[in-house]
Write a structure and sequence with these properties.
Elements lengths: L4 E3 L6 E3 L11 E4 L4 H22 L1 H22 L4 E4 L3
Antiparallel strand pairs: 1-2, 3-4
Helix pairs in contact: 1-2
Length: 91
């Protein structure tokens, strides 16, 4: 059975999945958001793998591989975190 409700961490009100604003506290609901640590890992891995590729093929390989590695990482992130829901509230 699929759970079609989300709970706001600020006011603990449950809403149907797909809402853009919590009706309890007016927090914005964002879907498919990457966690901050995932972005950091992708950037570090992209640079690290780019350096390794650059050292093995010459520096031309490094400039080409960096955007490709980063794009693959962020596309994979969209698939991995597609069900992730984050609430943000203005102070």
């Amino acid at each position: 059975m699929e759970n079609n409700t989300i709970k706001c961490p600020f006011c603990l009100k449950e809403s149907q999945r797909g809402v853009h604003v919590c009706t309890g506290c007016m927090a914005t609901a964002l879907y498919g958001v990457y966690p901050g640590w995932y972005t950091f890992v992708i950037i570090v891995l992209s640079f690290g793998l780019s350096v390794l590729i650059g050292m093995s093929t010459g520096m031309a390989g490094a400039t080409i591989s960096l955007p490709i590695i980063a794009a693959v990482g962020f596309i994979a992130g969209k698939v991995i975190f597609c069900d992730n829901v984050v609430f943000r509230r203005k102070m």
